């Protein structure tokens, strides 16, 4: 049986089923293993991991601990309350913005590739090339954040490093916008998002793209990238304090378990705390060399759980309202047995977005695509309800094909 336990309850002989943290946080070769020493428990706690999932069928039990299902059900109850608060309205439809977003995605990823190459060669960042791209991203987010953010969820192992930076920029701009920040602050945050991983230019490709878990030594090299990126950006005097701060501190955590400076609580700036949430969200939803990314909906639930220790809980909740409990591009299973892809959040009820339905799970076949507004009743373009989010690989379908209807 899977149970969720506090790290302080761990004992030698327990079987770890899930370390319950983003993959760049822990120093272990595996996510699942039998605890064989007190040193392993110490490493778990020192890594800032506050709770884990154990398998009581494979190791020692914690009698009064909640089952994983009970813990997840409690999270869902809390999210239902959170979903009742209003979100920012988009200006144009997803279909209208998609073509422009596709061009911006290509333009921005090409730019980040150039920035990384220049950094590797010791050249200073040319901010006059970066500014217009951030502006284009910002304007696309203002028109419809779902288009660009949805497209940026599609990454390959070859373009992950570049598209991750573009995703963090777009998501951070959307986050700032949803929190009512002014245009200049939002632009500076976007610059920080686009440039936050510049230091990875100095990480050897063999480590950056290693098709397997990192050793302690390799992990230590990876952890140098915030300071390396900061030093690279310092060579360009026109780069302001906000992008510098985001670059240096996007891996800090509120409990002091982050790096490079072990900052804690509100000692971490507001925008660096926001960037940390966005960075982890995008990282854990992407397929990497040796692990499968989780769905956006599942990732948001992880962010919510981790916010008890690692992130500002208020910011985490605001981020969830920004992207939606079921973000654009999420595949959901409806009460009717149909599968749909979320295309737009509802203004006041994040549990009732607009979806394009395209597949019947009861008959295991594609159906004529149709747009449903789940906030409406039967006969008014709605009449269905989300049961939960689903994995596209489970049904061997590609929901992104149905983001827009022809």
UniProtKB/TrEMBL annotation:
<dbReference type="GO" id="GO:0008081">
    <property type="term" value="F:phosphoric diester hydrolase activity"/>
</dbReference>
<feature type="domain" description="HD-GYP">
    <location>
        <begin position="139"/>
        <end position="335"/>
    </location>
</feature>
<dbReference type="InterPro" id="IPR037522">
    <property type="entry name" value="HD_GYP_dom"/>
</dbReference>
<dbReference type="Pfam" id="PF13487">
    <property type="entry name" value="HD_5"/>
</dbReference>
<protein>
    <submittedName>
        <fullName>HD-GYP domain-containing protein</fullName>
    </submittedName>
</protein>
<dbReference type="InterPro" id="IPR021812">
    <property type="entry name" value="DUF3391"/>
</dbReference>
<dbReference type="Pfam" id="PF11871">
    <property type="entry name" value="DUF3391"/>
</dbReference>
<dbReference type="InterPro" id="IPR003607">
    <property type="entry name" value="HD/PDEase_dom"/>
</dbReference>
């Amino acid at each position: 049986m899977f149970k969720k336990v506090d790290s302080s309850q761990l004992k030698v002989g327990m079987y770890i089923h899930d370390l319950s943290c983003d993959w760049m946080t822990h120093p272990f070769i595996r996510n699942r293993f039998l605890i064989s020493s007190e040193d392993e428990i110490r490493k778990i706690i020192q890594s800032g991991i506050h709770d884990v999932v154990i398998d009581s069928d494979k190791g020692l039990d914690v009698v009064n601990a909640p089952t994983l299902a009970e813990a997840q059900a409690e999270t869902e109850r809390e999210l239902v309350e959170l979903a009742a608060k209003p979100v920012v309205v988009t200006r144009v439809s997803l279909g209208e913005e998609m073509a422009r977003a596709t061009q911006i995605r290509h333009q921005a990823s090409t730019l980040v590739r150039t920035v990384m190459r220049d950094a590797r060669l010791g050249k200073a960042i040319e901010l006059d090339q970066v500014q217009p791209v951030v502006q284009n991203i910002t304007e696309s987010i203002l028109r419809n954040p779902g288009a660009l953010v949805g497209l940026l969820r599609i990454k390959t192992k070859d373009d992950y490093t570049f598209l991750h930076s573009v995703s963090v920029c777009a998501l951070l701009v959307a986050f700032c916008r949803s929190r009512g920040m002014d245009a200049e602050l939002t632009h500076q945050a976007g610059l920080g998002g686009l440039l936050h991983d510049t230091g990875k230019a100095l990480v050897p490709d063999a480590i950056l793209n290693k098709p397997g878990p990192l050793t302690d030594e390799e992990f230590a090299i990876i952890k140098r990238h915030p300071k390396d990126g900061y030093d690279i950006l310092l060579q360009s005097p026109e780069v302001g304090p906000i992008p510098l701060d985001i670059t240096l501190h996007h891996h800090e955590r509120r409990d002091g378990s982050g790096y490079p400076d072990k900052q804690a609580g509100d000692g971490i700036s507001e925008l660096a705390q926001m960037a940390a949430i966005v960075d982890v969200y995008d990282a854990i939803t992407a397929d990497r060399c040796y692990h499968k990314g989780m769905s956006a909906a599942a990732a948001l639930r992880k962010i919510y759980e981790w916010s008890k220790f690692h992130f500002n809980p208020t910011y985490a909740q605001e981020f969830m309202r920004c992207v939606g409990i079921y973000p654009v591009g999420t595949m959901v299973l409806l009460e009717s047995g149909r599968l749909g892809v979320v295309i737009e959040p509802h203004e006041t009820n994040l549990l009732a977005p607009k979806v394009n339905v395209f597949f019947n799970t009861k008959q295991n076949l594609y159906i004529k695509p149709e747009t449903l507004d789940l906030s409406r009743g039967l006969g008014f373009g709605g009449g269905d309800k989300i049961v939960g989010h689903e994995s596209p690989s489970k049904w061997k379908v590609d929901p992104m094909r149905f983001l827009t209807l022809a």
